[in-house]
Write a structure and sequence with these properties.
This is Crotonobetainyl-CoA:carnitine CoA-transferase CaiB. Keywords: Transferase. The chain has 430 residues and is of the alpha/beta class. The protein folds into 2 domains: 296 residues, Crotonobetainyl-coa:carnitine coa-transferase, domain 1 (Rossmann fold); 84 residues, formyl-coa transferase, domain 3, CATH 3.30.1540.10. A 7-stranded mixed sheet has the order 8-7-6-1-2-5-14, sandwiched between helices. Strand 3 and strand 4 form a beta hairpin. Helix 2 packs across helix 9 and helix 9 packs across helix 10.
């Protein structure tokens, strides 16, 4: 029996409790995906996140559907799946930033915040008196994170940045898709990965800045650009180009520097074979009934296999097509050769490993068909301070009054006065 046989399931994140960022106040002026991804991660780690939204419409992604969450009667609600994906553990405050009263309210909230995240056009918030210089003068410890398409300076700083555009300009699409010889063309990833990765870099930068502040008391301005982060995570492909001057081609599912590492045809479909070293290749050849292939000098070492991939790949395909996928996976797993199925998204959430690791969660939501909404779990597993799932993605304005009472000590009369001035719009439940 192996250690994995006796290992218990990871502890489920508590619906309440205190995470490692408990007590950190985050003022979230971001929308779409990069900023909300960063702030949701901070919220999962325990931060108190107040999301500032436009009255009436809210975050743009609220309307990015279908699909939309359906209520108990099967009717579509205003909550899109896209919005739900990155906005849990937040409270929503609908603020009119075109009004002096709304701007003044955000300035008051910023004085109480530890972190502010925004993705307005470069210079837009500064013109409203909500830029870093103005707010840090009132709150020197503020960590102010600006997320933009191309950064706060440079020849493209004025341009809007969207995930698809950044995947193209940042080189990812040139690496994704079938090769030209197979009729392929540059292809974007199937999810907004440039946005998501930018949000991950932003959250890292925020945590580093909070650590610096704990030592010095100093806040700072973080300038995080989708374009920069996309270029950064070209990783090995980018450095390969810098090393030899050759532009990496599209290879479909193949790996640029490991062979065989691809999706291969079995008798009943395709499966993934990911041979990472020479010993694994020799074991694959044994299972395939052709051990002499691993002794062929053209294929004995990985560097040789890469140089001779055109000769080797057809040989591998001739072998893999003789058995069913399940047979290959069972036989190769038994000898430690990495392989696996190509799951669709529905199969992913039904996979025993995903279930065991808590990657599908349910949270209470008043508009859900059974009073709940299904979401993707946080992948971070912290032994002493686990992530917490405290609040479902809020309806527009939900929790805003409560946040004002907690952050600014506003009483009911003060909150009503703000609503009557037009600075805020309260949710129907408040």
């Amino acid at each position: 029996m192996t250690s994995s046989d006796t290992a218990s399931a990871p502890a489920a994140p508590r619906p309440g409790g205190r995470g490692p960022l408990a007590g950190v106040k985050v003022l979230d002026l971001s929308r779409i995906l990069a900023g909300p991804t960063a702030t949701q991660l901070l919220g999962d780690l325990g931060a108190d996140v107040v999301k500032i939204e436009r009255p009436g419409s809210g975050d743009d992604t609220r309307g990015w559907g279908p699909p939309f969450l359906r209520d108990a009667d099967g009717n579509e609600t205003r909550e899109s799946a896209y919005y739900l994906s990155s906005n849990r553990n937040k409270r929503s405050l609908a603020v009119d930033l075109s009004s002096e009263e709304g701007i003044a309210l955000v300035r008051r909230l910023a004085r109480r915040a530890d972190v502010l995240v925004e993705n307005f056009k470069v210079g837009d918030l500064a013109r409203r008196g909500l830029g870093y210089e103005a707010l840090s003068a009132e709150n020197p410890g503020l960590v102010y994170c600006s997320i933009s398409g191309f950064g706060q300076d440079g020849p493209y700083a004025h341009r809007a940045g969207y995930d698809f555009l950044i995947q193209g300009m940042g080189g990812l699409m040139s690496l994704t898709g079938r090769p030209d010889a197979e009729g392929g063309e540059p292809t974007k990833a199937g999810v907004g990965i440039a946005d998501v990765m930018c949000g991950m870099y932003a959250s890292n930068a925020i945590l580093a800045a909070l650590h610096h502040r704990s030592a010095t008391g100093e806040g700072q301005h973080l300038d995080i650009a989708l374009f920069d982060t996309q270029v950064a995570w070209l990783i090995n492909q980018g450095v390969a180009c810098l090393t030899d001057g050759n532009v990496p081609p599209r290879r479909g599912n193949a790996h640029p520097t490991i062979v065989p590492y691809n999706a291969y045809p079995a008798r009943d479909g395709s499966f993934i074979l990911a041979v990472g070293n020479d010993a694994q290749f020799a074991r694959f050849c044994e299972v395939a009934g052709k051990p002499e292939l691993a002794r062929d000098p053209r294929f004995a070492r990985n560097a040789d296999r890469v140089r001779n991939r055109i000769e080797l790949e057809p040989e591998v395909e001739r072998l893999t097509v003789t058995r069913d996928r399940a047979d290959w996976i069972a036989a190769l797993e038994a000898v430690g050769v990495p392989c696996g199925p190509i799951n669709d998204v529905g199969e992913v959430f039904a996979d025993p490993q995903a279930v065991h690791r808590g990657m599908r969660i349910e949270m209470e939501h008043p508009l859900g068909p059974d009073g709940h909404v299904a979401l993707i779990g946080n992948p971070l597993k912290l032994s002493r301070t686990p992530v917490t799932y405290r609040r479902a993605p809020p309806r527009l304005g939900e929790g805003g009054g409560e946040a004002l009472a907690e952050w600014l000590r506003e009483d009911d009369n003060g909150i009503r006065a703000l609503a009557e001035s037009g600075a805020i719009v309260l949710a129907e439940t408040e």
